[in-house]
Amino acid sequence: MKCENCTKKECIKKTNIDDQQSVTPDTPDFNSEHEEKSEFHKLADAKIFLSDCLAHDSCVTVEEGIKVFQQNQKEFFRILNLNKKCDTSAHKVLAVSICPQSLPYFAAKFNLSVTDASKRLCGFLKSLGVHYVFDSTIAVDFSILESQKEFIHRYRHQKQEEHSLPMFASACPGWIRYAERVLGNPVTPHICTAKSPQQIMGSLVKDYFARQQNLSPDKIFHIIVAPCYDKKLEALREDFYTASYNSHDVDCVLTSGEIIQIMEQKKEFVKEAVVDNLFGEIKEEDTVSDGATRSDGYLEYIFKYAARELFDMDIKEITYRALKNKDFQEITLEKNGEIVLRFAAAYGFRNIQNMILKLKKGKFPYHFVEVLACPGDLSAPTSPWLRDHWRAQALPAASEAPLNPGQSVLLLTLV
């Protein structure tokens, strides 16, 4: 099986993964009562990873494939059932973090507003036995804040430090995997060193929240609800594993479609609930914004921040200019008739290929590129609360030993 964007006729390694998976324990059948599967189930059952297509001859290994597919509803219910047993030493605190990109999916499914869909989803998860439900929008904010600071550092030191610019966004796991396993140098030094929102949320839950609750990280089972299957692969990265506690920052990723399957299986009325807060009281209207931005908003927020910090220009509206196709667009900032900033959004493998080709030829005109493995304009609400009321301090990337792509240099000042 291959996705529609794959450039290969078939992926032999992907077939091997599917064959290996067939001998592993089956996941619960949530469709036995329905002859025809819904679009959500078809998506969930497809098990197509865009990283498989992007990586070509460096596809996901059989071992990785098995570990990815073990992140499913069965694992979720295994933990729920453990908590029902008398052996309290085996109990886990179940914490679920919901990606902001998933909420519009549930809103459309329930025919509700994003805010009401969030309450419905939170109430359902808690009715199953989940102890805490968090909105990971705050992790998006932390990631953007750190990325902003890193871009300013790179821009100001571009003459002194090789590979400072362009800077590529680092939040898309399919893109990062392709860059690491296939492209290597000279691409990887250009990737932002900020953690993705998923892994920042993992650190917050397994570190900050664990200490707040006086819990060992391995006593928390942390689930991420995300719209992207590649997020399952990202959760397995060794960068985000603490050996001393034998604990990953994210234990399991469930897609929006998988959660819908569980909800359709249960078919029971649940009381709505408001998501929990990691940092005390936060106004609801500040955590779920009505405005939508492209992807997680990296390009727009970094562009506006750089315009203000570097050129003392306050940008209110951003105008995109489509180039060869709708998935490759650019924005520019002019001052005194000269273009001083040129940013681009490159979505999909075709545009990534063209972008890398230009970089290798030394004809790359952009200072920053928001890269997504998936084609199409993704959008998600972001929270203005963090940027107004919290401070995040990032170490200058060049002041420390070199970091792997995706490794964070985030220091949080929680006041």
UniProtKB/TrEMBL annotation:
Superkingdom assignment:
Eukaryota
Stored Pfam families = Fe_hyd_lg_C
The segment(s) forming the Iron hydrogenase large subunit C-terminal domain are: 93-376
Q: Which family does it belong to?
A: Belongs to the NARF family.
Q: What is this protein called?
A: Nuclear prelamin A recognition factor isoform X2
UniProt source species: Phascolarctos cinereus (Koala)
